[in-house]
Structure formats: C-alpha cells, structure tokens
Amino acid sequence: MMNLVLRRLVLFIPMWIAVSVLSFVIVHATPGDPAASFVGQDAGAASLDVAHRRLGLDRPYMEQLYHWVAGSLTGDLGQSYFLGRSVATAILERLPVTFSLGMLALLVGAVVGIPLGTVAALSPNSWKDASTIGVSLTFLSVPEFVVGMLLIYVLGVELRWFPIGRYAPLSDGVGLWLHHLALPALALGLSQSALIARMTRASLLQVLGADYIRTARAKGLPEKIVIGRHAFRNAIITIVTVIGLSLALLLSGAFITEALFQLPGIGSLGVSAVLRRDYPVIQGLLLVSSSFILIVNILVDIVYGLLNPTISDR
Amino acid sequence: MSTPVIAVSNLNTSFWIEGKWSPIVHDMTFSIAPKETLAIVGESGSGKSVTALSIMRLLGGELARVQGQVLLGGRDLLGLSQTEMQQVRGNQIGMIFQEPMTSLNPVLTIGFQIAEVLMQHRGLSAGAAEAEVVRLLDKVRIPMARARFHDCPHRFSGGMRQRVMIAMALACRPKLLIADEPTTALDVTIQAQILDLIKQLQEEEGMSVLFITHDMGVVAEIADRTIVMSQGRAVETGATSDVFAGPQHPYTRTLLAAVPKLGALGAGRGPRRFAAVNPETGETNDAQEMPNTVAPTTVLEVKNLVARFDIRSGFFRRITSRVHAVEDVSFALKAGETLALVGESGCGKSTTGRSILRLIEPESGSIKIAGREILSEPRGRLQSMRRHAQMIFQDPFASLNPRMTVGTAIAEPLHIHNQAARAKEKVADLLSRVGLSPDMSRRFPHEFSGGQRQRICIARALALEPQLIIADESVSALDVSIKAQVINLMLDLQASMKLAYLFISHDMAVVERVSHRVAVMYLGEIVEIGPRAAVFQNPQHAYTKRLLAAVPVPDPSRRGERRMGAVEEIKSPIRAMDYVAPKRQYRVVSPGHFVQI
User: Fold this and answer.
1) String of b and e for B279-298 (b: at least 16 CB within 10 Å)?
2) CB distance A314–B313 less than 8 Å?
3) Between B423 and which of A34, B15, B411, B597 could a Cys-Cys bridge form, CB atoms 3.0 to 4.6 Å apart?
4) Do B431 and B440 meet the contact criterion of CB atoms below 8 Å apart?
5) At how many degrees (to 10) do helices A266-276 and A87-122 cross?
6) What is the CA radius of gyration of chain A?
C-alpha cells in the first residue's frame, strides 16, 4: 500500500511538468495577440512593440516556455497582464469560493444520490426503481444552468428565500455561507446526484448477487445487516471511484454555475481572463485545475486501496 | 427409528419464468435421522441445490414459490416469518456452498465473519466471540488460528476458505449441516481433507448432514442414504450401499455406468469406452476396449521445456520472484496416442499445453510438431504451424463466440487458412462426425447444451485435420453422463483419424480411462511418466501415490480405505530470483516407466 502511494506521488512530478508544458502550448497556440488587447485596437506598431517587450512576449518561444515551467515548479505562475497582481495570488483569492461550491455540490450529490440508488437497487424493476431512474435521467439531461435558472427564479426571485448574485465567505459564519451557496450547490449537485445514484444502483445490484451475500443470509443475519454491512461495504468501493472521477465534471460545471450565480470563484476569473487574453492567468488556471484532477485521482487510488484489502496488501 | 432432525414432505418449488410458474422441484419427500448423512446426487439442473435453498428459504423473494412442509424440531419452516427464519439459519441449520473463493465477504476479516454468527444467535460479546472463533478455527485446523483471525479472505487458499466456511456454519452447533457441493471446486487432495473434516466434525458434534453433490465417488465415501435426483424428481432413494449395488431406476444405472472408477481398467493396455446405457430400458452394452491406434511416427516432441512468469513488486516494480510454472519438462507423443498430463491446480499442466501452441512464450527448451521446431519459428509463421495442432478448452460456454453461428465458428479456421472452397460441405461433415446434425450449422451457441457445445468445439478443432489435439480439461465442466459421451466421441475420432491427444486433466479416473501413457506433474515438473497401467497399478513417486489415494472411489464397500494425512496445502512454485532449478534425475522402473528421484 505504501509503495502504491509513493509511486503515485513520485509519478505526480513528471505529470505536473507535462501538464504545465501543455497549458503553455495550448494557450500560445490559440490565435490572437494579447498585446493588441493590451494597448487597444488603434495603437501603432511602435507601441505594440513596447507592449510585447513589457509582457516578455518578444523573447524566444522556448525561453518563455522554460521560464513558465521553471517558475510553476516553484509556485511562481507569473504576473497577470491586467489584474496588477501575481497569478498565484489571484487564483488563491478565489479558490475558496470554488472549493466551497464544489464540496457542497458533492455533498448534495452524495446525500441525494446514494440513498436514491440504494432504494432503487433494493427493489429492482419496481416503481421505486423506475421513478429513481426517471428522476436521475432528468437531472442528467437537463444542463446545470437550466436547473440553476429555475432555482434562481422560484426560490430566489419569487419566494425570496435565498440571496442571488452574492457570496459570503466561511469567515462570516457557516449559516450565512451556506445560505449564499445553497442554490448554486444544488444546481451543480443535482446532476452529480444523478450520476451517483445510477452508479450506486448498478454497483449495489451487482454486489447483491454475489455469493457472499447468500452466505450472509444463510448465517441468519437480519436483512439490515446483510445490506448495510455486507453489501454496502463492497458497493462503496466502486461508488467512491466514480465520485472521484466525476469531480472533473464537477469542475467544468462549476465554471458555468459560478458565471450564472455571479460567484467570485476561479470560474469567473477564467472567463474574464479568456476574454482579455490574459495568458498567464489562463495558463495558471489550466495548471491548477489539471493538478486538482491529478490530486483527486491519487486520492481515489489511496481510498480505493484503503477500502479494498486485496489492494492494500500490495 | 428416532424422530428425524428434519422431515421434508411434498416439497414443490417453482420459479416465475417468462410470465408463468415453472416447476423446478417436484414432490420431494425425505427425512434425515440424527447423526445421519443423506446425499442428494444428480446432474446440473436436476434441482438438488434448489431443494437445499428451498429448505433454507434462500430463494429470491417473489420469483420463487415453495410449497409443502419442512419440519424442523416440530415447526414447519415454510410457515415461519422472515424474522423467525433468521433465527433458524446459521443457528439450527448451517450451510456451506460450492464456491469457497466467492462465498466469503472480501472486505471483512474471516474472524469477524465467523464472530458475527455467534454475536447474532448466541448474543456473545465481541471479546467472547473472538475467543470462541479462535477455538473454532483450531477445530477446522487452520494453522495459527489466533494470528489469522484478522486476515481477509484473499490471504487464504480455496481449501482454507472452505474450512473457514465450515467453522462459520458450525459456530452455533446446528442440528443440521447442509453442504451444497462443498468440495467440487477443490483439488482432489484438498477435497479428501475437507471430506474427512466434515465426517470427523459430524461425529464430534453429533449433527446430521444433507450433502448435495454431483460426484458419485463422494457419495459413496460419505453418505448413509442417497437420493438420486433427475429433472426435479427423486428417482431413487435408498441406503447408499443398496443404490450402488443394485440400482433400480434406469437413470441411476446410466449415471453409475458413466462414473469412471479408478482401477477399473486393471492391466488393460488401451483406452476403453464407457458403457452405453439406454435411459429408457436400462439395457447396457458393454464397454469395449479400443483397438490399438498408436502408430510409430512421433507427432510431438517436447524437450527441456521451461516456462516462468515474473512477479514484480516494490517501488520500482522490479522482478522480485518468479513462478516456475514449467521446469525442464520433456516427453514425446506418437500418432494415435493419448498422453495425459495430470496434476492439481498450479502444477503447470495447462502452461505446458499452451506453450506447445506458443499461446504462452516459454523461456527455453525445444518443441517439435511433426519434426518442425516451433520455438524458433518467427511469430508471423506461427499461424501455418498451428494447423497441425489444435486446442479444446475447458469451458464450452466461454469458448464459442455467442454472436457467431456454429457453422461460421467451425468454418473460421478454414477461412483463415485459405481453405474456404469446400467449407460448407466440410462443416456438414464435421458436425455429423461429432454426432450433431448438419442442419444445426445455422444456429447460435446459446441454443445448445454444454455437451453439445463441447462437440462443436471439437468439430472446430478438427476442421484443419490436425495431427495433434491439446485437450485442456476438456471434459471437466461436463456432467458425468455427458462426459462419458464426449470421451467416447474423442476415442472414436482418435481411432478413425489417428489423432494424437495431449489430454490435460486433474481427474485421475478419467485419465485412466482415456490414456495410453500418463505424466504426473507436480510444481512444474514431471515426477512420474509411463504407460498407463504401470503408473496406476505400480505408482512409484510419493506424490502419485498421494494423488491416487485421494480420489474418492464410487464403491461404498471400499469406504474408509482412503485416508489422508495432516492438513497440507498444495505447495507453490513461486521461487526467489536466485533459485536455480536442480537438475532432476529419473530412475527407470520398467520399460517406458520413469520416476523422478
């Protein structure tokens, strides 16, 4: 088990470098000149040259790449063209918002999805099963922004139960924080819950057909224990894996949800950076979000190993 | 007669299949006296397991209907609520199953899984339960029981897991143990140990046993009384010795005729067909010995074959040890001859078979098929060489593509080897050769039974008219009567087509029946090789003797002759990196009969 974790951690370094190179190449391969938007449409060639020099865009491509990758390894993601701050600071300021939103959405997904999936699996092909599948299909097929807009309209505008378009950090108190994040987390979490419900159902159904469930019943254990202890412990291994992998989906959903609810997270930072061709910020965001996915994958592997004794032996 | 422990009367079980109730078990009536062992024997689909699960009421909810009466200690189990039934299961009736590898929960420790029963039914505290579990593990002879309490199932072998299952089933000292094919998935020496253990514990605890099996040898070994089941009905019931000595029902006679009996061939030279019994009339035509098919030409010559697999571990995934799957194996096979490779799981017999077709790349050695060296052939030329040697696998369900008609599957090798011209006639001819009708070629595999599918696999293997067939456990998954038919077919084909068989099997009784010569493998090496009669009548190597002693003999009058020693696991051929395989020496016992010193 320790070996597994160590191997994953060591492999993280080359992957980080690869991701870092990739984010540079992707950003610089896109057409357009950031200096142009910096000095304005009507500026002459001379002022464009000055802008190039100031932004470091006049230096050779490979040198710029090296500079970026080497900097990213030490946590220096460069300076934003427009924000007047370092990219790292700009991202760190906004990360808690996105993180809060993501975690709350995940909580919604798990709290709604796992019980729904369990109910469906315990009476397969019944009306309960059919309605669960129906509900989850609806959540999966309706995009987050539609759910979000409905929530804003009904609970925010009409009923005025929740504030819209504002954010309160955790330091203002848990109640306030939750109150402000409830709707976006719901909008983002419901599609997650659909995914988790379907995975829970499939995984639990498979486990319920296993020989060791028959053994547990033959031992005279009450059905509660057969399901809760024997079936669920095995089913959760698959569910955790899926939840981990779906975090990537959650991240892209968070960009849209933040824009919709006007939350000051990295999503809205990203949108404005793209519109202004703020290369360093785009690169930094690409790097941070890809590393997040890398880290989640490692965590999933570790949790998987902890839950599954045949893995932890290796 | 004392009051029976359990009395089953008019048990009828039906399953809800495609909108109607289909009866699976009809009118089963039997009882089991205290300390008695009753065996229910039958082939797959006979309803024997469903009978057991009906008694335990473990059949899935609304899709199964159980009627009749099952009296246990004066109560009708079929009338109990689920909660009352939970107090019977694991407490008054213990049950063990066929698949030790999957019957234990992989994420819970074995100790906890046994303790659970004690805490549930006897209300023991966790501490008291642990002490009792250690005692139970000792009782089923798990070495170092206390230390192994906290291990999860994957650290145990199949035999050890079945011991854990037994400890679990017996934890609350039930009056009745239901054992559903408990040894079927185990190697023969392990099977013998588990059977001994069940018998011994039964004497100690004074419980009754309902033993469900397809194996007549096991029945003869363990049961006081026997019920023979066929198509959901009990066709014959009686004392085990009577059933074996004077079977009344034609089906019982068919079954008994199809059971290979170790030592039945005596000093005869060649293979012998199974007697064919007409299931309606019960008429038997005698088993005849096959004419001599062995020709002087050598078809296959294997010399100093070595196959090893790397085991990697640690941070850098370095090779830390190796499985010495096949170690310095040499033998030859003549046209029309059958050489059997026998041994238990992990002995390297299948790896040897696969190496010959280079489905696995062996490490060194030499393999000549029809005089041509196989191991030096470039990969691209392997296809043409594989024409001469074909393989038949164990699982007829998994080895046919479900989306390909049988005709296409049989013709496929012809297309690959550019012989498509007469493919249609060829397929028709092959199907009739293996006892199927040529018009079946347009059907899909799922329309056939297991035995028929194996015939199809044989037809496919024969399509290119190979000289050599490697049959890897080809009849092991088949029911005994079907097994006998397929073996008869293989013997007939050998006689008509002068086929050489490399017959890989773990079943000593079948091997005795089909082979001219036998090679016994153990830990990747051939420990004994020789003419069949010599190896079976005069075994020299300790392992050969052990293997032969472990085979249950389907003759109740010879019960108790077989005795196994202490708990012993099959050893593992995993060796350290620096292990150098010792050069083995062989002693000549008689002409052609060699034994490892």
Assistant:
1) eeebeeeebeebeebbeeeb
2) yes
3) B411
4) yes
5) 130
6) 24
* B residues 136-195 closer than 8 Å to A (CB): 152, 154-155, 165, 168-169
pLDDT-based confidence at residue B594 (cuts at 50, 70, 90): very high
pLDDT tens track for B341-356? 999 888 899 999 999 9
The CA distances from residue B79 to B9, B76, B90, B177, B572, in Å, are 14, 6, 18, 21, 50
CA distance A83 to A52: 17
- Beta-carbon contacts of B185 under 8 Å, excluding residues fewer than 6 positions away, are B98, B99, B100, B101, B158
Q: Is the ipTM of this complex over 0.90?
A: no
Are A253 and A144 in contact by the 8 Å Cβ rule? The answer is yes
- Mean pLDDT value across residues B93-122: 93
Provide the pLDDT for residue B52: 94
Q: Give the CA distances from residue B315 to residues A7, A9, A301, B135, B320, in Å, rounded to whole numbers and listed in that order.
A: 6, 11, 16, 39, 11
- The CATH code that applies to domain A93-312 is 1.10.3720.10
Q: Could you give the count of Cα atoms lying within 13 Å of A304 in the half-sphere of its Cβ?
A: 18
Pick the closest to residue A61 from A100, A34, A25, A30 (CA basis): A25
Type of residue at A77: L
pLDDT tier at B569 (50, 70, 90 boundaries)?
Answer: low
DSSP string, B393-421: -S-TTTSS-TTS-HHHHHHHHHHHTT-GG
CA distance A286 to A37: 21
Pairing of strands B64-72, B37-41: unpaired
Q: Give start-end residues of each CATH 1.10.3720.10 domain in chain A.
A: 93-312
Using CB atoms within 10 A of its CB, is residue A206 exposed (0-12), middle (13-18) or buried (19+)?
A: middle
Instruction: Output the CA torsion B439→B441→B444→B449 (10° steps).
Output: 70
Contacts of A5 in chain B (CB under 8 A): none
DSSP symbol at A154:
I
The residues that bridge with B233 in the sheet, in sequence order, are B230
Phi (first) and psi of residue B499, to 5 degrees = -75, 145
pLDDT at A288 over 80: yes
Task: Tell me the chain B residues in contact with residue A313 when contact means C-beta distances shorter than 8 Å.
Answer: 154-155
What stretches of chain A show up as alpha helix (H) in DSSP? Answer: 2-29, 34-39, 45-55, 61-73, 87-122, 127-141, 144-151, 174-208, 211-218, 223-225, 232-261, 266-276, 279-307, 309-312
Distances, alpha carbon B470 to alpha carbons B298, B405, B490, in Å: 15, 24, 12
| Residue A231 DSSP class | I
Distance, CA of B352 to CA of B50 (rounded, Å):
39
From chain A residues 3-32, the ones with a CB under 8 A of any chain B CB are: 3, 6-7
Residue whose pair of structure tokens reads 């059919």 in the numeric block: A130
User: H helices within B246-400, ranges in order?
Assistant: 250-258, 349-356, 382-386
Q: Which amino acid is at B244?
A: F
Q: B32: which 2 tokens? A: 């089991």
Among A3, A215, A219, whose Cβ lies nearest the Cβ of B315?
A3
Q: Could you tell me how many residues make up chain A?
A: 314
